[in-house]
Amino acid sequence: MGAAMLAIDLGWMGPSYSISTACATSNFCILSAANHIIRGETDMMLCGGSDSAIIPIGLGGFTACGALSQRNSDPTRASRPWDMDRDGFVIGEGSGVLLLEELEHAKKRKAKIYAEFLGGSFTSDAYHMIEPHPEGSGVVLCIEKALAQSGVKREDVNYINAHAASTPAGDLNEYQAILHCFGKNPELKINSTKSMTGHLLGAAGAVEAIATVKAIHTGWIHPNINLENPDNGLDMNVLVGSKKERLDIKVALSNSFGFGGHNSSILFAPYKNV
What we know:
Layout: H1 2-10, H2 25-38, E1 44-51, H3 56-65, E2 94-101, H4 103-108, E3 116-124, H5 137-150, E4 157-161, H6 168-182, E5 189-191, H7 194-197, H8 204-218, E6 220-221, E7 245-246, E8 251-258, E9 262-269
Parallel strand pairs: 4-5, 4-8
Antiparallel strand pairs: 1-2, 3-9, 6-7, 8-9
Helix pairs in contact: 2-8, 5-6
Protein name: beta-ketoacyl-[acyl-carrier-protein] synthase I
Keywords: Transferase
Domain Ketosynthase family 3 (KS3): 1-270
């Protein structure tokens, strides 16, 4: 209904539909929108996601799964990706929308271009409804396919906006997969927007894509709050600390993963007018 109502309001007659792939939904929408433009089916696409799960059935379902943090007495410190004391994610609510546009069309109307969308990929863990694959193979495959699809060299990726939802298994699996793919890059920096927003579920990828684009545009990457006691084997030279950091981003990758084993990775870079 959201896509249909927006199309009616704007009078846009191109592709209009919704996708549901759990917490990877927004990235699926962004990449699908880009593919419509690449195929020449449209010049512009609004894409992203919204979610509002703080209702009895939403809280009840995630509680039954054992996925939520129990730090109810200290809510501002409950979402703590990669911290030794993390115990589950914190549900947030929100939305994010990006306007993707064919380059010449954007230049013709003198649009302000914040970043270039390079591409991405999806995969499935094909393993478990809730738990990530213990070897992170689905995540590694997703990242490698995203690099191949977009023609990006792995050494050019120096910023990762991670899925990192503050879950015991998921945070470490993703970290290890990222290092497997990019660990030889001495400039690599990783952060998690969810440390500050909680997990926005279907909206997470869009909000985190916006955070990624803003990092490219401003040269600042936001902190990982509540990362006070890093889990074993984590390199704090790679993870952003408690304060924002300056970074000249060459290529940024944003991950979103969902229950059911849905994996998605999308890539952005600074726009260079050549």
